[in-house]
């Protein structure tokens, strides 16, 4: 069975190399985080890479990233556009914010016909998660009339925090069989005295277990979910309040609502790898150091491709 990795990269800015975090070099030969994700996906057995980008970035993206990836992988492109809306809908005046990760994946509706995983372009997930998702996709139950079957990488909260500021994480609640029951979107989680906590308005701290599993937007799905997304996007747009130009159609919210309605079962695949990304400008030095350590440990070769 074929499997595909979709990489959400439509958030890359129009000035390539001008401080765009997805394109910050972090490897010894100018590699970016996306290079390591593609390497890990191919090593895990994924057959194809789909880059979700904006049409206005197509030429530059291919020149800087796509063309060299096409030498080592089967590559396709999907385009997330503000005006790519269902029949009968137009972009609200003043809307410049993207429609969110749900619409990003929906952009693949005519391209992906096989089980697939989806990730963010600017997150490093580690090898373990790609292997677990790929292997689960190969034996994942097909969609029945009453329920979808998905999987997700569950990272350990303590392995995903930044030393340079607060982060938002989807804290997962699962049962004893690692089935996802709920995702609790939690903002402003920071390291406080070696622990994870959220500062409250009254000055107190709400502590969160560092061993909690969190979603980093790394999902495994069946291709028929794209049809579900299409119908759901119509409903999202119909219910959008007049004058709202910021609300987004987001995967964690979509899947969380599906869980509540009993429309999906999601298997949590725990990864002990350390996640990292350039959330803050100060994170870059830590990411560069982390890749140096991974190379020294033999996880990656000095020259990636």
Report the CATH topology name: Spore Coat Polysaccharide Biosynthesis Protein SpsA, Chain A
Per CATH, the superfamily is Spore Coat Polysaccharide Biosynthesis Protein SpsA, Chain A
Average pLDDT score: 92
Total strands: the figure is 13
Give the assembly state of these chains.
Answer: single chain
Biggest β-sheet strands, sense, barrel: 11 strands, mixed
Shape designation: globular
Count of folded domains: 1
- In the predicted model, the low-confidence regions spanning at least 5 consecutive residues are none
Q: Order of SSEs, N→C?
A: EHEHEHEEHEEEEEEHHEEH
Residues in helices, as a percent range? 25-40%
| Computed structural class | alpha/beta
How far do the termini sit from each other?
25 Å
Q: Which CATH first-tier class would you pick? A: Alpha Beta
Radius of gyration: 19 Å
Tally the helices. 7
- Tell me the CATH architecture: Alpha-Beta Complex
| Beta fraction | 25-35%
Structural notes for this entry:
The protein is α/β, with parallel strands linked by helices and 305 residues long. The protein has a single domain, classed as Spore Coat Polysaccharide Biosynthesis Protein SpsA, Chain A, CATH 3.90.550.10. It contains 7 helices and 13 strands. The protein has helices spanning 33-44, 58-69, 101-106, 127-139, 225-238, 251-260, 283-296; strands at 4-8, 48-53, 74-79, 116-120, 123-124, 148-156, 167-174, 180-192, 195-199, 205-208, 213-221, 264-271, 276-277. The strands form 2 sheets. Strands 1, 2, 3, 4, 6, 7, 8, 9, 10, 11 and 12 form an 11-stranded mixed β-sheet that branches. A hairpin with a 5-residue loop joins strand 9 (195-199) and strand 10 (205-208).
